[in-house]
Write a structure and sequence with these properties.
A hairpin with a 5-residue loop joins strand 4 and strand 5. This protein has two domains: 33 residues; 99 residues. The strands form two sheets. A three-stranded antiparallel β-sheet has the order 1-2-3, with no helix packed on it. Strands 5-4-6 form a three-stranded mixed β-sheet. Helix 1 packs across helix 4 and helix 4 packs antiparallel against helix 5. It contains five helices and six strands, in the order E-E-E-E-E-H-H-E-H-H-H. The mean pLDDT is 84. By secondary structure, the protein is an alpha+beta fold.
């Protein structure tokens, strides 16, 4: 770290403290050339990957857009908002943990389907019908058979 006054490059850390949430570190530094003190802040930069759409367009990851997809699939279904929030958080965390700069939208869709399948089978079918572009009743029948053979899970708090 360079001193802001004479732009000397030799400084030493005098004191370090973490913020309450642990995301920011405050450091007091002293310049070895002029003995002036200054404060720096370090914070974690957790960048979400860009999403590559089927058309090849790249978009910023948008958690609100993901939440809207869940809300559409679960419209008038008995799924508490906190369960949806927890599912969106899990997907965001999985995408973040991939450490990829870009993720295909199909991967995001698969993650959404995994979460919907746990939350609500009707919501899962609704989402799958759009996501998989169902063409006829047989597509619905296949998806219904798929979720019928899945053991029912008890909902747990997020």
């Amino acid at each position: 770290m360079k001193c802001p006054c004479p732009k000397a490059s030799d400084t030493k850390v005098v004191d370090s403290r973490e913020s309450e949430d642990g995301r920011i570190i405050r450091r007091r530094r002293a310049c070895l050339a002029c003995d002036k003190r200054f404060t720096t802040f370090e914070k974690f930069e957790l960048r979400m990957p860009h999403i590559i759409k089927g058309s090849g367009i790249r978009e910023e990851y948008d958690e609100d857009k993901l939440r809207v997809g869940f809300e559409r699939a679960l419209h008038k279904r008995p799924v508490p908002t906190e369960y949806v929030d927890a599912a969106v958080d899990r997907i965001s965390q999985r995408l973040r943990s991939m450490s990829e700069r870009e993720v295909d939208s199909r991967k995001v869709g698969e993650l959404v389907m995994q979460e919907l399948r746990k939350l609500d089978k009707v919501g899962y079918i609704r989402f799958a019908s759009v996501y998989r572009d169902f063409k006829d009743v047989d597509d619905f029948r296949d998806a219904i058979k798929e979720v019928q053979h899945t053991p029912a899970r008890k909902r747990r708090a997020p």
